[in-house]
Amino acid sequence: MPLFSYKAIDENGEIVKGIVEGEDTSMAYEDIASSGLHILKIQKSIGLSDMYLKQARGWGIKTKDVIEFASNVAVMLKAGLPLITAISDIAESLDNKRFQTRLLEIKRSVELGSGFSGALARHEDIFPEIFINLVSVGEETGRLEQSLSDIAMHLQRMEDLKDAIIRALMYPSFALLGTMGALLFWLVYVLPKMSGLFTSMSVEIPPLTRALMSASAFSSANWHLFFIVPAIIYGITLVLSKKDKTRYYLDALKLKLPIVKLILHNKLLAVFSEQLRILLAAGVTIDRSFDIMINVIDNAVYKKALSETKEEILLGSRVSDAVKNQSELFPTIVFRMLSIGESTGNLPEQLNYLSEYFINKLDDLSLKMGKMIEPIIILVIGGLFMVIIMGLLAPIYDLIGAVGS
Predict the structure, then answer these.
(1) Does the N terminus or the C terminus of the chain have fewer Cβ atoms within 10 A?
(2) What is the pTM of this model?
(3) Across-strand partners of 8?
């Protein structure tokens, strides 16, 4: 839906500016007016401004802000404070003005009769779908404070998972960039100066040296390609990933790449376990839980596996048996723990164990990643510079031999 920017006056007579989504101007106007604001100006964003606003709307609001909000509201509700008072107090204490504006908009919606989950749904760019769904369940069951506590724990685990992935990828990324940077420096700046010296010698230049000189000449003349080609490849990959069939094959390829597959498999299994745990613990039905997980999982191969698993469950299969049929993606421990959980009636507890297990595996992997890749990096760098040094020394040895004779 398009975005509408507006200027309005609130109940305290202060000027309020904001952005709201709506099907048309009248719908956006009604949505703003229903929050208790007196509209002075409303304007639909078009073209590039619409794209910019959609991206910029959530800038400055981080996941940690949302986690802190959920945790604080849960504590205040347990202490007996009304929801509106809790939201107002939290908003007033915030230094983040963007998030403060959002919370005040949510407060106004609740004051005018909207449910908390409905008010949050108007800000789904900063509140994930699982947040809104669990709040809705909490409202229906009368356990809103417990739902918010579970949400805070869940989002924190997802942040820990993201941090573990970043730590795991940091060393290989720096090693690769460092190696490519050093190689480019030698080819563009060092070897051209040596090439001038070699061509002035009255000796035959060895094939290896000629090959290095050709590579150096090409790199010096086309150094910009080292930046343009990766950008083009990245752009093409993004375009291809928009198509479902192509994205499936790209995601399948990622799951087969050395090292990358270790990180991706553990990440996706951790997300699966944690999402299913929090949804089942909150009382969400199994089919709805799988629908939410299918939207959250960012790998087409796992999306397809979860869709097939859901269909089997709806046909009467146990969760563990349906997961076992996807054994190429879900290891034995997943099937075993799910089976124990179903047999004992404590499936969320077993899923909690699985979630911690895979997050810990990622943490362990991030710590060992440097030691795993270091020998490969040393061999690659050593091999590259051995070739370069041999290519540089060969003409010098030939020159020394010619002088000696």
Answers:
(1) C
(2) 0.69
(3) 16, 39
pLDDT at 305: 92
Cα–Cα distance between 189 and 89 in angstroms, integer?
A: 60
Distance CA 314, CA 328 (A): 22
Angle (CA) 82-86-92 rounded to 5° is 145
**Residue 403, phi then psi, degrees to nearest 5:** -65, -40
- Which pLDDT score, from 0 to 100, does residue 215 have? 81
Q: Walk along the chain (405 residues) in steps of 10 and give the mean pLDDT of each run.
A: 71 71 69 70 62 57 90 92 91 86 85 84 84 86 87 86 78 77 79 72 73 81 82 83 82 85 88 88 86 86 92 91 89 91 90 90 78 76 79 71 58
Say what the pLDDT of residue 34 is: 66
Dig out the tokens for 148 from the structure: 């918010």
What is the C-alpha separation between 94 and 98, in angstroms, rounded? 10
The two tokens of residue 102 are: 């959002």
Supply the pLDDT for residue 48: 45
Distances (CA, A) of 117 to 136, 279, 341: 5, 15, 30
Number of other residues whose CB lies within 10 A of the CB of residue 124: 12
Burial class (CB in 10 A: 0-12, 13-18, 19+), 173: exposed
Radius of gyration of the chain (CA): 29
**Cα separation of 241 and 224, whole Å?**
26
The full length of the chain comes to 405
Q: Judging by beta carbons within 10 Å of its beta carbon (0-12, 13-18, 19+), is residue 213 exposed, middle or buried? A: buried
Q: Could you read off the pLDDT of 168-217 as tens digits, one per residue?
A: 777 777 777 877 887 788 778 777 777 766 666 666 777 877 787 888 88
- Domain boundaries, given as residue ranges, for the chain: 3-56, 63-127, 153-405
Structure tokens that stand for 198 in this block: 């070699």
Q: What is the pLDDT of residue 398?
A: 66
CB 248 within 8 A of CB 299: no
Among the CATH numbers 3.40.50.300, 3.40.50.720, 1.20.81.30, 3.60.20.30, which is that of 153-405? 1.20.81.30
Amino acid at 61: I
pLDDT score, position 374: 73
Residues 60, 362, 271, 295, CA torsion sign: positive
SS (H, E, C) 178-200: HHHHHHHHHHHHHHHHHHHHHHC
